[in-house]
Design brief:
alpha+beta; elongated; 17 helices; Beta-Lactamase; single chain; 501 residues; GAF-like_dom_sf
Length: 501
């Protein structure tokens, strides 16, 4: 039986129209590409599950099982209130919820105007620019990005994969918004893992190269969208907890300082006490309180480790500039500031990130006390050391803080709140130090070292260094056995003893 040519042509035309109208070629290509990428043991079983998943994605509602999983995940995340533990919980639970290989959490740092990156494959967080890469775009425009094959997307930066040997196949990134619709971070999941033929989820982290990853589905987007709402709440609660802890630490530090310096302490003990409490008030890794020695044109302090005096030229370094200019100096990145001497870090192995220097002033009451004491003793030297200028209160020292650190160990920078607190602290302790008799008379005595050691809770020992210091002081040589730092922050060779931290 001969089929009319016209009929065959009509059927072929109708078939072509169907294939073109229904995008059959594209659908088949997508399925084949997904099959080749997944490389399942049972292709037919995988195709069945894949098509069922595609059909379920057409619905905007989550299934009952997905809702149970989402509820269990959000309950674990919102139960954490300590910032670092909350972040670790978000990363850990998102990996399980989306069945992916890696999760990264980018949290905005308003103080530094950067994003702090926490990731499942990073031991410590790193700082990244808000406008950098795919995450920067998600943060700026508050939109979701779902990429099935990252190497075919021009927005993806392959430099990280090239350095580490890791293969990023699929990626989904979503903004985290607060109750005012402000973006406070971005959550990013990488390399969704497939199901095997037994319908068991492959364990996350078993595919370090990412060669078996499959694209994230619409259902994953919906799950992550619901999750980010709870992540935003958890992050906000953690931030409030962080602020409450900081406020409590400051109040405790102030109270301890008031209780300590209300006692009859010498200048050495008072310096150590103030230094230790200053660390707690603004939560810094290190603190140093410098006092001025005008006859010798030096700033001096006491090491909290050894109880030994440290001396620097009056105009040297950041502390010297703060003293001379009588201005607050706040440096968020020490290595980007030309005033910072990096050689000190290189020698000690310590990494300085942020610096805050606050001048200490004597008030009118302290000045009057000094003048009365000087007149009573008829000491012209004291009057010369504490002469009053017409420009107002005199700078008698500097409080220098290094490396602002949160209570959970994360390095931060000093902000306006820290400056206000330390200025208040300086106004309180400055006059106390100014009224100390040790500041009025700067003759070195063997009892200085003894006082410092007692303040540190140690038994004073008559070491060889102390003997040399005493002899040198008796002969009137050098600087009375103190550690003297030059303009570059190094110890003078002629002293020959002591270690500067």
């Amino acid at each position: 039986m001969n089929v009319p040519v016209e009929s065959v042509e009509q059927e072929q035309k109708a078939l072509d129209q169907y294939v073109k109208g229904k995008c059959v070629a594209e659908a088949v290509q997508d399925v084949v590409q997904s099959l080749i990428t997944a490389k399942p043991i049972n292709p037919k079983q995988w195709l069945l599950e894949h098509l069922e998943g595609e059909l379920s994605n057409e619905s905007q509602d989550l299934s009952e099982s997905d809702l149970h999983r989402l509820f269990a995940t959000t309950r674990k995340i919102t139960s954490e209130i300590v910032p670092q533990e909350a972040i670790e919980s978000v990363i850990r639970e998102t990996i399980v919820l989306l069945n992916c290989d890696r999760v990264s959490l980018f949290v905005v740092d308003r103080k530094m105007s950067k994003l702090r990156l926490y990731a499942s494959n990073l031991a410590t967080p790193i700082m990244v620019s808000p406008g950098q890469g795919i995450v920067g775009s998600v943060f700026s425009h508050k939109h979701t990005v779902n990429i099935g094959n990252c190497y075919l997307d021009q927005r993806f930066d392959r430099s990280f994969d090239d350095k580490t040997g890791y293969t990023t196949r699929s990626l989904i990134a979503m903004p985290i918004l607060d109750f005012e619709n402000n973006c406070i971070g971005v959550i990013q999941a990488i390399n969704k893992l497939p199901f095997d033929q037994t319908q068991k989820v492959e364990k996350a982290g078993t595919d370090p190269i990412g060669t078996c990853a499959v694209p994230f589905e619409k259902n994953d987007e919906r799950m992550l969208m619901h999750l980010t709402q709870h992540v935003g709440i958890a992050m906000r609660n953690a931030e409030l907890y962080r602020e409450a802890i900081a406020t409590s630490e400051r109040a405790t530090g102030f109270l301890n300082t008031i209780q300590s310096i209300s006692q009859d302490l010498g200048t050495q003990s008072m310096l150590l006490t103030i230094t230790m409490h200053a660390n707690k008030i603004v939560s810094s890794e290190r603190a140093t309180v410098f006092l001025v020695d005008e006859p010798n044109q030096q700033l001096w302090s006491v090491s909290t480790d050894t109880g030994q005096e440290i001396r620097i030229p009056m105009r040297a370094g950041i502390a010297g500039q703060c003293f001379v200019e009588a201005n607050v100096i706040n440096i968020p990145d020490a290595y980007a500031d030309k005033r910072f001497n990096q050689e000190v870090d290189k020698k000690t192995g310590f990494k300085t990130q942020s610096i805050l220097a606050i001048p200490m002033l004597e008030d009118d009451a302290a000045r009057e006390e000094f003048e009365k004491a000087a007149q009573k003793r008829k000491s012209l030297a004291t009057l010369a050391d504490k002469k009053v200028t017409e420009q107002g209160n005199k700078v008698i020292g500097v409080i220098q803080m290094i490396n602002k650190v949160s209570f959970d160990g994360q390095l931060e920078i000093f902000d306006e709140g820290d400056i206000e607190v330390m200025e208040l602290f300086a106004k309180f302790v400055g006059p106390k130090l100014a009224m100390s008799s040790f500041l009025a008379t700067r003759h070195s005595e063997p009892s200085d070292r003894k006082e410092a050691e007692l303040a540190l809770g140690r038994q004073p020992q008559q070491t060889d260094d102390m003997v040399r210091m005493h002899k040198r002081s008796s002969r009137g040589q050098g600087t009375g056995g103190m550690i003297v730092l030059g303009e570059d922050g190094e110890e003078d060779d002629e002293d020959g003893f002591g270690v500067v931290d």
